[in-house]
Amino acid sequence: MGDWTxxxxxxxxxxxxxxxxxxxxxxxxxxxxxxxxxxxxNIESGRILDLCCGNxxxxxxxxxxxxxxxxxxxxxxxxxxxxxxxxxxGVSKRTSFICxxxxxxxxxxxxxxxxxxxxSVWTSIxxxxxxxxxxxxxxxxxxxxxxGILFIAETVHRDSLNLSFCPSSFTxxxxxxxxxxxxxxxxxxKLRTTWSFYAKNGDNLRLIDRIMFDIYVYSVSxxxxxxxxxxxxxxxxxxxxxTGQLFSPWTELNLVAKTTNMQHDEKGSGxxxxxxxxxxxxxx
Length: 284
Ligand SMILES: C[S@@+](CC[C@H](N)C(=O)[O-])C[C@H]1O[C@@H](n2cnc3c(N)ncnc32)[C@H](O)[C@@H]1O
Prior knowledge:
CATH class of the largest domain: Alpha Beta
CATH superfamily of the largest domain: Vaccinia Virus protein VP39
Strand order of the largest sheet: 3-2-1-4-5-12-10-11
Bound molecules: S-adenosylmethionine
Helix content: 25-40%
Order of helices and strands: HHHEHEHEHEHEHEEEEHEEEHH
Largest sheet: 8 strands, mixed
Distance between the termini: 53 Å
Structural class: alpha/beta
Strand content: 25-35%
Shape: globular
Number of domains: 2
């Protein structure tokens, strides 16, 4: 898996950028929702690391709200666009955009750069192997201070695809029509999507490019268990961070996790300790 990522995000970044730009409009509400939740963890300002940041909508919006943000993405066109947008929106001094492969996160970010918050937004996982995803979250944990928070937001998850699966759809972006055809494999948990981009001229459509991609879709419990191995304890799940709607199998996934540390790992999670205590008091 993974070869398609270069094709869609680097070689045809021009086409993907049109889709990504449509996401900006809802980003302020998303980030406001995240900031509301961060207050519960006593985080009111600080440093954000935005993994697979695209053209910077999350990092830039956090910066507009007073945070300092570092965005990482391997697409040169997205990173250039993010820098330009940061300049236009007056937050260049509070943002930094690094072009590089998130799988080599520790080599991209100065080792003494400690973050308060890490974000991974809009299904930016499941592109490579599970070990590679695990490694990215382990590296992110190393760069985050104790008590820091991770958001995996606006992400597709297995239950939703098993419950309601839409095999095809089309969307109009300016003068481009995007036709999406999907295949969901319940046995491998892989979502195979073919994107066909057409230029629209009146009633005529001309095929510009066709790109196929495979994403491994995690279940919520599987993702929480992988994060735990990487040093993150899941503390909440939402269907929508902007409205605070709770997660259900029908909603998309927005997961909030907090750092764990070695001592914590050895003793078990807060929830496990709670149950152990309860078991003991029932026996006594
Ligand atoms: C669906 S987009 C999400 C973009 C952004 N998080 C947002 O919400 O607008 C996935 C992003 O992951 C980036 N990406 C994919 N593989 C990557 C890798 N190995 N290292 C860094 N970025 C990667 C792509 O370039 C793309 O911008």
